[in-house]
């Protein structure tokens, strides 16, 4: 391979004294390889750098000397030495490859559940890790330590560089529920005023309240202080499910004089995204007053590799706030929608059953009001640690 880079010349020579010419080549400092004699002609391979020396030796002995072939990188480069555009393009392409391999082009985030990708990338950007950053100048281990110490939601983060890609693997801090360990003696008390409608799965402890009993908030339901039948007492970790029926009240209001958002036509603006910088592709400014904003970015990709270059599509949805007056019927419809949304968000889970509800509508000169009285059923038991003396 190195010989090809230096350049190899195959020569042909015809000398008056063939043997003398061959001996002269062997004694010269220029190495000759694959030397052979055929039909009075001498052939051999020499390096490009030794060509002048071998040619002079041939002329001294009166030999006719010529070049049969040339091969190697040195001749290829010389062939294109006057094509400056190609050389400059090659140099620029090489420089671009070197540059891009040392610049952050993609930031990938893994393992996050509660935190969004944007929140993680924002923490990375605070440590100098962002698209367009020079990778050798970033201390990934130091960045890991700073992110963990500065965030209350991240237990661990691992950063690694994979070419022009920075990969961030995140482990979030999970909030531990306040549960009394099963090894700690505890009672189960009522979390609210209710009537017991079901007793399920009482594994440990002594049931104090029975079916259909009424209880108040804080009343003992299952006791962790248990008699063994022989006059002895021991403490247990009470376990069981006590279903209680109770009532709750929710109040919803709607003013007759309110404000309404009137939306105009959507306006699309495009920007060129180039290594973190955004260059507007439109003329003028965005003066829309009140508006909702959303954007998407289409990145350039090649062979599955995403480059930090693309088009940002920014969507503006301008609106005006106008006063509006509702009638009693319109206000009632709005209140009914609010009730449905409340039930979807808070009462439609598997832990709470809606047994019945009563809705009472009323109004005065300024607003309409809906008072909803719910009859609900759910597990009313909560654990309370026994502080033994």
Q: Which overall shape is indicated by the principal axes computed on the Cα atoms?
A: elongated
Estimate the helix proportion, in percent: 10-25%
Q: Give the C-alpha Rg.
A: 43 Å
Major sheet: arrangement of strands: 11-9-15-22-21
Task: Return the average pLDDT rounded to an integer.
Answer: 82
Please outline what is shown here.
The chain is α+β, with helices and mostly antiparallel strands and 389 residues long.
3D structure, described in words:
The chain contains 8 helices and 23 strands. It is α+β, with helices and mostly antiparallel strands and 389 residues long. It has a 5-stranded antiparallel β-sheet with strand order 11-9-15-22-21. Strands 16, 17, 18, 19 and 20 form a 5-stranded antiparallel β-sheet that branches. The longest helix has 19 residues, at 328-346.
């Amino acid at each position: 391979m190195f010989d090809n880079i230096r350049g190899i010349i195959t020569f042909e020579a015809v000398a008056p004294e063939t043997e003398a010419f061959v001996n002269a080549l062997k004694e010269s400092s220029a190495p000759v390889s694959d030397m052979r004699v055929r039909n009075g002609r001498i052939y051999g391979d020499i390096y490009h750098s030794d060509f002048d020396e071998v040619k002079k030796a041939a002329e001294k002995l009166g030999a006719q000397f010529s070049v049969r072939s040339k091969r190697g990188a040195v001749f290829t480069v010389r062939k294109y030495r006057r094509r400056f555009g190609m050389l400059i393009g090659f140099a620029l392409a090489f420089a671009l490859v070197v540059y891009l391999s040392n610049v952050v082009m993609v930031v990938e985030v893994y393992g996050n559940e509660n935190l969004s990708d944007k929140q993680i990338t924002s923490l990375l950007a605070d440590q100098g890790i962002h698209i367009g950053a020079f990778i050798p100048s970033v201390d990934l281990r130091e960045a890991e330590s700073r992110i963990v110490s500065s965030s209350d939601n991240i237990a661990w983060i691992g950063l690694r560089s994979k070419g022009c890609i920075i990969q961030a693997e995140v482990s979030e801090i999970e909030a531990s529920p306040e549960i009394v360990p099963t090894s700690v003696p505890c009672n189960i008390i009522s979390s609210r005023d209710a009537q017991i409608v079901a007793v399920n799965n009482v594994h440990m402890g002594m049931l104090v309240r029975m079916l259909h009993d009424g209880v108040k908030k804080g009343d003992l339901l299952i006791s962790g202080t248990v008699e063994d039948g022989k006059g002895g007492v021991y403490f247990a970790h009470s376990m069981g499910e006590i279903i209680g029926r109770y009532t709750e009240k929710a109040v919803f209001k709607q003013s007759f004089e309110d404000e309404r958002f009137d939306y105009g036509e959507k306006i699309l603006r495009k920007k060129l995204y180039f290594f973190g910088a955004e260059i507007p592709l439109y003329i003028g400014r965005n003066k829309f007053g009140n508006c909702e904003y959303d954007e998407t970015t289409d990145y350039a990709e090649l062979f599955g590799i995403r480059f930090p270059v693309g088009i940002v599509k920014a969507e503006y949805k301008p609106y005006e706030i106008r006063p509006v007056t509702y009638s009693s019927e319109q206000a009632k419809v709005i209140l009914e929608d609010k009730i449905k949304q409340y039930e979807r968000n808070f009462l439609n889970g598997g832990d709470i059953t809606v047994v019945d509800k009563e809705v009472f509508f009323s109004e005065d000169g300024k607003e309409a009001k809906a008072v909803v009285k719910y009859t609900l059923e759910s597990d009313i038991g909560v654990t309370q640690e026994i502080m033994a003396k």
